[in-house]
Write a structure and sequence with these properties.
There is one protein chain. The chain has 345 residues and is mainly beta. The protein is 2% helix and 42% strand. Strands 1-2-27-26-25 form a five-stranded antiparallel beta sheet, with no helix packed on it. It is globular. The protein starts with 21 loop residues before the first helix and ends with a strand. 44% of the residues are buried.
Length: 345
C-alpha cells in the first residue's frame, strides 16, 4: 500500500528553481531561452521549470508526464522516495506520493465517470497498477500467465497502457516478449496480439501505445516499434493496418493532442548516447517539426534520416502537451535532472 504525503507548503519551494546537476546546467546553459523547432511548431526553452531540491524530492529516471483534470502536471519517476511529483503549470511543487513503484515506467491518465485515475506500468513489479489521482490503489493487472505467452513472470515487462472509452485496457509489453494485452475493465484478458519480430504485425520494442480518434474516425491503436523507427497502426482487435517510417528516430510513446502526434525521441541517427529530440507529426502522420533535431525533409514521399542538431536533450522519454500547446519533456538516464518545458511561440 502506498504512503501518500500531504500538501507541501509553499515555503518548501525556496530551494526550487535550479537544476540539481551543475554539469547538466553548464551543458544546457548555452540554450537558455533559445527557440527550437520548425515551421509553425517552435518553442522557447525553459530550463528551470520544475527543478527542485534533489535531497528532499529526488528523481532517478523521469519517465512520463500527464496533465490531470485540474490542470496539474504529474511526473512519474522510478525513485521510490516520491514516485509521483505533482506540479502546477508554472513548475511549483504541489505534492508528492508513492514509494512502491521501483520500476515506474508508464503513466496513463483516464477519466472515468468524472474521476481521474492513473495506470502505472511497473517493469520491475511486472504488472500495471491502477490508482486514484492521489495514489490509492484500486486495481492491479498482474502478469498475464493465462495468455500462454510467458514462461515466467520476469519475461513480462509492461511499459505502457491506453484505455478505451468502454473501459478496455491495452498493455504494451515493450521490454518483454513484445505482446499487446487487451483486457476488459474487470481485468479479464480478452485478446493478445503482436510479439517479437520484424514483420509488419510484430514489434521490436513495443514501447508505447495510444488510441487514435482524430477527426472522429473509427478508433485505432498507434503503437511504437522503437527499434524499427516505426509507428504502427492496428485495429482495436489487433489487426495490422499500416506503419509510418521515421528513420533515425527512436520514438517513445505517441501522445495525441488535437490533430498532432507528439513523440519523445530517445535517440537519433545511429542511436548514439545523448542524441534525443522531439518529433511532431501532423494529421497525416508526417513529421513537421523536430525540436532539438534536424529539419524534417522528405524526398519522393520518404523522410530522410533524422538526427540531433542541438544538445538540448539527452534522452527524452515522454512529452506532455498542455492546453496552450506548451510541451513538458521528461528524460530517461539524463543525470537525474527535472523536466524541461518548451513554451510554444
Amino acid at each position: 500500500m502506498m504512503k501518500r504525503r500531504g500538501f507541501i507548503k509553499q515555503s518548501s519551494l525556496a530551494t526550487a528553481g535550479i537544476l540539481t546537476s551543475t554539469s547538466a546546467m553548464g551543458m544546457l546553459s548555452t540554450y537558455k531561452d533559445a527557440i527550437i523547432g520548425h515551421g509553425d511548431y517552435r518553442y522557447k526553452i525553459d530550463l528551470n521549470w520544475g527543478a527542485l531540491n534533489s535531497d528532499k524530492f529526488p528523481v532517478n529516471d523521469c519517465h512520463e508526464m500527464v496533465q490531470d483534470s485540474k490542470g496539474r502536471i504529474l511526473l512519474l519517476t522510478n525513485h521510490t522516495k516520491n514516485n509521483v511529483i505533482v506540479y502546477d503549470k508554472s513548475g511549483n511543487l504541489i505534492e508528492v506520493w508513492g514509494t512502491d513503484f521501483p520500476g515506474a515506467h508508464g503513466l496513463t491518465l483516464n477519466v472515468e465517470n468524472g474521476e481521474d485515475f492513473l495506470y502505472i506500468s511497473d517493469n520491475q513489479r511486472h504488472e500495471v497498477i491502477k490508482t486514484t489521482i492521489d495514489g490509492k490503489v484500486v486495481q492491479i493487472f498482474k502478469y498475464p500467465e493465462s495468455s500462454g505467452k510467458y514462461t515466467t513472470k520476469d519475461t513480462y515487462v509492461p511499459t505502457e497502457t491506453t484505455v478505451h472509452t468502454n473501459g478496455d485496457v491495452y498493455v504494451a509489453d515493450g521490454y518483454g516478449e513484445q505482446y499487446i494485452m487487451h483486457y476488459n475493465a474487470k481485468g479479464e484478458l480478452l485478446n493478445v496480439f503482436g510479439g517479437k519480430g520484424e514483420d509488419d504485425h510484430l514489434f521490436q520494442n513495443a514501447h508505447g501505445i495510444c488510441i487514435d480518434t482524430r477527426e472522429d474516425k473509427t478508433p485505432t491503436l498507434l503503437i511504437t516499434a522503437r527499434q524499427q523507427n516505426k509507428l504502427k497502426r492496428f485495429s482495436m482487435s489487433g489487426e495490422f493496418i499500416e506503419s509510418y517510417d521515421l528513420p533515425g528516430a527512436f520514438i517513445c510513446r505517441p501522445v495525441i493532442h488535437k490533430e498532432n502526434v507528439y513523440l519523445a525521441t530517445i535517440w537519433s541517427g545511429d542511436r548514439s548516447e545523448g542524441s534525443g529530440f522531439i518529433s511532431i507529426l501532423d494529421k497525416n502522420n508526417k513529421l513537421i517539426s523536430a525540436p532539438g533535431g534536424c529539419e524534417p525533409e522528405y524526398s519522393d514521399g520518404k523522410l530522410k534520416k533524422m538526427y540531433q542538431t542541438l544538445k538540448v536533450f539527452r534522452h527524452p522519454h515522454d512529452v506532455c502537451v498542455d492546453e496552450d500547446e506548451n510541451l513538458y519533456v521528461a528524460q530517461w538516464n539524463s543525470r537525474k535532472t527535472y523536466p524541461i518545458k518548451l513554451v510554444r511561440t
